[in-house]
Amino acid sequence: MKRNRNAICIALAALCMSAQAPALANSALASKYGCLGCHAAAAQLVGPSYQDVAAKYSDDKGAMEMLMKSIRNGGTGKWGEMAMPPQAKLPEADLKRLATWILGGAK
Ligand code: HEC
Q1: pLDDT of 14 higher than 80
Q2: At a CB cut-off of 8 Å and minimum separation 6, what does 75 contact?
Q3: 58 alpha carbon – ligand 1 mean position (Å)
Q4: N or C: which end of the chain has fewer CB within 10 A?
Q5: Residue having the nearest C-alpha atom to atom 16 of ligand 1
Q6: Residue partners of 67: CB distance under 8 A and separation at least 6
Q7: In angstroms, what CA-CA distances link 62 with 5, 14, 90, 99?
Q8: Pocket residues for ligand 1 (CB within 6 Å)?
Q9: Which of 60, 78, 84, 101 should be mutated for ligand 1, with most atoms under 8 A from CB?
Q10: In this predicted structure, what is the pLDDT of residue 104?
Q11: Residue 47 Cα, ligand 1 centroid: separation in angstroms?
């Protein structure tokens, strides 16, 4: 019995630590807003991969502003025929974090 309890404690501790790991935070945010239903870091799904987005705008100084706008307003025609729906409910702070993360290659 005592042994079982120890195993549960270890499992819980591992769970808490993984939930707090900073590396998960940005993709968890993208998942929370449904971005990952259409985007992946390295593969094209409905929308372009975030690494392709980062590569396309890597020399563009205004990329951050522009991406925040295109995430908020959605759009079509830049990457293909598919449209991205507007994300009007995304809070400014989260929008900025997502745009920064995507421009950094979604690592
Ligand atoms: C229903 C599918 C869908 C969802 C959900 C979605 N996207 Fe997109 N996204 C697309 C498509 C399709 C495009 C390509 C639009 C185009 O060709 O202009 C795109 C384009 C983009 C671009 C590139 C914009 C540009 O100006 O080049 C970024 C960045 C992006 N999405 C981020 C996000 C983020 C962040 C979220 C979540 C808040 C999200 N997307 C949710 C489908 C989606």
Answers
A1: no
A2: 83, 84
A3: 17
A4: N
A5: 76
A6: 53, 57, 99, 102, 103
A7: 55, 41, 20, 12
A8: 33-35, 37-39, 46-48, 53, 67, 70-71, 75-80, 82-85, 87, 90, 98, 102
A9: 84
A10: 96
A11: 6
Residue with tokens 């079509």: 76
Tokens matching residue 92: 């400014």
Question: What are 23's two structure tokens?
Answer: 């590396």
When pLDDT is cut at 50, 70 and 90, the band that residue 25 belongs to is confident
Report residue 3 CA to chain centroid gap.
40
CA atoms 55, 59, 64, 67: torsion sign: negative
Q: Which residues of 64-76 are buried (b: 16+ CB within 10 A; e: fewer)?
A: eeebbebbbeeee
Give the tokens for residue 16. Answer: 């808490």
Span 83-99, average pLDDT: 95
